[in-house]
Amino acid sequence: MAVQSLLNNAKKNGEKKFAILIDPDEIRLDNLDQILKVSESSSADFFFIGGSLIMDDQMDLCLDKLKSHSKVPVVIFPGSTFQINKKADALFFLSLISGRNADFLIGNQFVAAPYLIKSGLEIMPTGYMLIDGGVKTTVEYVSNTHPIPANKPDIALCTAMTGEMLGLRNIYMDAGSGAQNPISNEMVKRVSKGISVPLMVGGGIRTPEKAGAVADAGATVVVVGNAIEKDPNLVVEIADAVHQYSKPIL
Ligand code: 1GP
């Protein structure tokens, strides 16, 4: 099934999904083996792969590993036009809608378009919203945009509503990789209630408790990267914490 359909069905049925973000630069391959092992019991619903700045590109190698050892769908979460790889299943076609930098709203997308058409990847138009997570993140620096203040849920809501009305199929709210403070449950609740497309939330989520609270607050997909790279054994606990908030099937 197409990844977008999986997300739409999850949103419609109140299912909660858990995505592991693999940064192909920071991941140690022995860690990836471990992550794949603990994810075997299908505790992770998606792998997202990408990063805002990649110094030592292991994306091709990571994709080979992910695709040969797991059936979990892999979606590219691109930080730049260099991160297009047809070995993945799909790609978030991100527009940085919390910012006002035309390059990240449409410029890079324009450059990538002819490559994406030829790639055969499933393209998933997604509004990317950067929320202040207490420290300056790589994405803030690289994109030269200001994050939405953490205590302004109404700004986040209006931004997400705008993205949906522009036709974007998903909203990704991110406090940025390694954020000091993850996005507040209050903001997740406010935004999720005001939109009808799937909401993904990530950045600085380190514990099963917070992952569960984000799912309970209305995220369809909870995304965790750094914490799992550090301790792959967290996968099962975080997955359980997120999945427990899925609406029971009647
Ligand atoms: C970053 O949302 C992701 O874009 C995941 O963040 O690595 O802090 O979990 P962490």
Query: Which regions have little confidence, pLDDT < 50, spanning 5+ residues?
Result: none
Mean pLDDT, to the nearest integer, reads 95
Order of helices and strands: HEHEHEEHEHHEHEHEHH
Helix residue percentage: 40-55%
What structural category arises from helix and sheet content?
A: alpha/beta
Question: How can the largest sheet be summarized?
Answer: 8 strands, parallel, barrel
β-strand number: 8
Beta-strand fraction estimate: 15-25%
Provide the spatial order of strands within the biggest beta sheet: 1-2-3-4-5-6-7-8
Provide structural commentary.
Strand 7, helix 8 (208-217) and strand 8 form a beta-alpha-beta unit. Helices cover 42% and strands 17% of the residues. The chain has one domain: Alpha-Beta Barrel (TIM Barrel), CATH 3.20.20.390. The protein contains 10 helices and 8 strands. The mean pLDDT is 95. Helix 6 runs parallel beside helix 7 (185-194). The chain has helices at residues 3-13, 29-38, 59-69, 102-119, 138-143, 153-165, 185-194, 208-217, 226-230, 234-243; strands at residues 17-22, 46-49, 74-76, 90-96, 122-130, 170-174, 199-202, 221-224. With 250 residues, the protein is of the alpha/beta class. The structure holds SN-glycerol-1-phosphate.
